[in-house]
Amino acid sequence: MAEQQEQAADDAMMTRIGQVIMLHRGGDRAEARDRFLGLWSEIGEDGDPLHRCTLAHYMADTQDDPADELAWDLRALSAAEELTDGRLARHHQSLAVRALYPSLHLNLAADYIKLGRSEAARTHLSRARGAVGALGDDSYGDGIRAAIGRLEFRLGEGEGEGEGGGGVGGGEAEGGSGPSREGPLGPPRQEP
Q1: In Å, what is the CA distance from 141 to each residue of 29, 38, 69, 78, 102?
Q2: Residues annotated as region Disordered (predicted)?
Q3: DSSP 8-state class, residue 96
Q4: Domain coordinates of the chain in residue numbers?
Q5: What is 12-158's CATH topology?
Q6: Do 92 and 10 meet the contact criterion of CB atoms below 8 Å apart?
Q7: Taking the complete model, does pTM exceed 0.85, yes or no?
Q8: One digit per residue, pLDDT tens: the chain, 192 residues?
């Protein structure tokens, strides 16, 4: 009985996080940021790693300052490092923690570029590239791989995949135009 109540509470928090993501995607960035902060205070810095990872991943996009965006993306990575496959499977049975890392490292690389820290960007870009084997052969995985290629091209590290515009810019490394893609953390973050 207690386990069912815990799972229902987990689902409720993920639902609430999802509602704030939708609010942000609807264009209310400031309100989404405020609501994410409220949820963060409920979850706590030592709360469920899935909740912390998901919330921090999306909270990063609501930040106006690139240093704040970096801080939230680092929180997401830290929480992912505490997350177990078993916990993630309770939320979605087909997911594995290793599938989160390409996206998380890609976002960190993009953050570091915005901050003019190209060596740190290269480090996380290399980690993202090294983790892509965990992604499926689907539109989400293809989108992450393409974003990595564009960022590599921007950093002058490879041929990249220059189609689709100017690469990663002003916000999301994974997002961009095109069809919606579902990934391990839900729909990809969108460019502002």
Answers
A1: 27, 32, 23, 22, 9
A2: 155-192
A3: -
A4: 12-158
A5: 1.25.40
A6: no
A7: no
A8: 455 445 555 579 999 999 999 999 999 999 999 999 999 999 999 999 999 999 999 999 999 999 999 999 999 999 999 998 888 888 877 678 898 999 999 999 999 999 999 999 999 999 999 999 999 899 989 999 999 999 999 988 765 444 333 334 334 444 433 333 345 554 445 433
